[in-house]
Amino acid sequence: MLVEFALVQGATEELRDRVRAVLRKSPLSQRAFAEQIGLDATKLSKSLSGTRRFTPSELTRIAEAGNVTVNWLINGSDEIETVAAVPKRSARVGPGSGTSGEAGRYQQILDAAWQLIAERGYHSVRVSDVARVCGTSAATIHYYFPGRDDLLTETLRYSVRLAFDRQVAELHTITDAYQRLLRLVELQLPTPGILRLEWSIWMQIWNESTLRPELRVLHSDSYKRWHDTIARTIREGQHQGVFVETDPEELTMTLTALVDGLGIQVITDRPGRTVDGMHKALQDFVHREIVRS
């Protein structure tokens, strides 16, 4: 059952309370926390007092810094079904898992591994590289991630969680399924920065899954979340009368395949393929094949 949007939009005081809980748990002062997430301290204070709203990107950064999910910030639970399908597994160490220091160290290692693998490639990253970035020992890395392969699988889970957080933050106030689908497409474009890095992780997982059957279940579970998010948006659009009554699973399969194919061409710099061109092609497909004429 999806969370009612009116309830989510009206729950601003509950959201502020949960942000305050994150701040209380943080070892940083409120000003230092704001600086860590790149938010002006005055804006943070105004958002906490209710005189301004948190932006989607701010909610995502707060969740990341606080080691919680955007779903928890907005809805009070990691598992509530909302505008995006909930991942089956989480790379995060939850608030009740070990000490805050352990959770912070785990997240630091995961952040470093994710960045290195995305930028250099899985086979070019050694445990010692991750340890060097974190300013710790290889033994500490192995404490949290027993084998190098664990780093790869957890970076995929982490990418899935990042995408889920971003989607919930960006989409939870968009009640129109057509507008939400267009925004979902935009959030999947391999623009420079974090989205391009996420694409790099996905492409490496696709390659490794081809060669290593043990990764295929993880890949399938992760990809299913993205598929289900698109499918539920299409079903809602059909219920609203704005999308054609074609089988939503077929529409989802075609749209996700188009996203994948164009994304690979863009990120591998195929001549003539650009993010803008990919965006236009996807918008044209939605208008031509999904929107009711």
Instruction: Return the domain count.
Output: 3
Report the sheet-strand fraction: under 5%
Work out the radius of gyration: 20 Å
How would you spell out the order of helices and strands?
HHHHHHHHHHHHHHH
Structural class: mainly alpha
Q: How many extended strands?
A: 0
Identify the CATH class of the largest domain. Answer: Mainly Alpha
- Mean pLDDT, nearest integer? 86
* Main sheet characteristics: none
CATH superfamily of the largest domain: Tetracycline Repressor, domain 2
Termini separation comes to 29 Å
User: What is the 3D shape?
Assistant: globular
Put simply, the count of helices is 15
Give the CATH topology of the largest domain: Tetracycline Repressor, domain 2
Helix content: 55-70%
- For the record, the CATH architecture of the largest domain stands as Orthogonal Bundle
Would you identify the regions where 5 or more consecutive residues have pLDDT less than 50? 1-10, 89-99
Task: Report on this structure.
- InterPro entries: BetI_C, Cro/C1-type_HTH, Homeodomain-like_sf, HTH-type_TetR-like_transc_reg, HTH_TetR, Lambda_DNA-bd_dom_sf, Tet_transcr_reg_TetR-rel_C_sf.
- Keywords: DNA-binding, Repressor, Transcription, Transcription regulation.
- Residues 126-145 bind DNA.
- This is DNA-binding transcriptional regulator, AcrR family.
- Residues 103-163 form the HTH tetR-type domain.
- With 293 residues, this protein is mainly alpha-helical.
- It has three domains: 1-81, 434 Repressor (Amino-terminal Domain); 98-167, Orthogonal Bundle (Tetracycline Repressor, domain 2), CATH 1.10.357.10; 174-292, Tetracycline Repressor, domain 2 (Orthogonal Bundle), CATH 1.10.357.
- It has helices at 5-10, 12-25, 30-36, 41-49, 56-66, 70-75, 100-120, 127-134, 138-144, 148-171, 177-187, 194-211, 216-240, 248-267, 275-290.
- Helix 7 packs across helix 10 (148-171), helix 10 (148-171) packs across helix 12 and helix 11 (177-187) runs antiparallel to helix 13.
- The chain starts with a helix and ends with a helix.
- Residues 1-10 and 89-99 have low confidence and may be disordered.
